[in-house]
Amino acid sequence: MPAITVDDLTTLDRVRGPGLGDQPRPVLQVTTAPQGYEGEGFPVRRAFAGIDLARLDPFIMMDQMGEVEYAPGEPKGTAWHPHRGFETVTYIIDGTFDHHDSHGGGGTITNGDTQWMTAGSGLLHIEAPPEWLVQSGGLFHGLQLWVNLPRDAKMSTPRYQDIRSGEVQLLTSADAGALVRVIAGTVDGHAGPGSTYTPMALVHASLEPGARLDLPWDVDFNALVYVLNGDGTVGEEGRPLRTGQAAVLGAGDYLTVSAAGRQESRSPRLDVVVLGGRPIREPLAWAGPFVMNTKAEVMEAYQAFQRGSFGHPTS
To answer: Which family does the record assign (predicted)?
Structure first.
């Protein structure tokens, strides 16, 4: 897993352990992601399937893309497609993706990079592996998270943030057994590079076998833990959690994730994504690539797309 790593975790700042009176977040629900295909046929796990949208707020959905080892000629992406009313966050752990939009934005993201796209008022967008990767094949693994926008930001001007792996805030756990990558938001006073409309935090943590991570978490945020690979437990109660499973946590000051003492050889560590945000608590009307507040606004988005108001592909 070439997402940014550190040889000596003891050189990093450590997140503080729970203080007197700090309350652990209990586990409310554990779900298992169904598997399917997206775009031109790349495999995905629907990470939050089965979780009520009220518990996800301000998030809408998340796909784990891969992990898959493509043979030459097999790598796949998406065709041009529209978005309006939310943000897409694409985090590439292994592999390379090119992305372009009808406003002329885009670029290439690879091992540990994040492309944060605010669709806002609407654009057309494409994501695909570069031609050299299609020809050679190779490992591909990543995430795409959809973050809702509040009503007053849904029609904002589209924008990109290209967050390089070297910009991510790196921390370690109290036992120096976990690498904590803060991509967006602030964790224990340490801010990640991602700028968000909706107050939130996004973390990718890698735990060595037997390690424990007590992660301080904003009391105003909800909290979700999703396992990219490996086996472990979540919560003080030690609820088992494995690859492709998500846990919804309740209120509290910190959350706990622990890695099993033995991991399979293909996944020598427990890798989890931890995310949470301040709920928007506004009406949600979601249909396909449009996330608005009312059905009428969704219909208007479809009409704008059909009229060509989202622009035309530039490449």
So the answer is: Belongs to the pirin family.
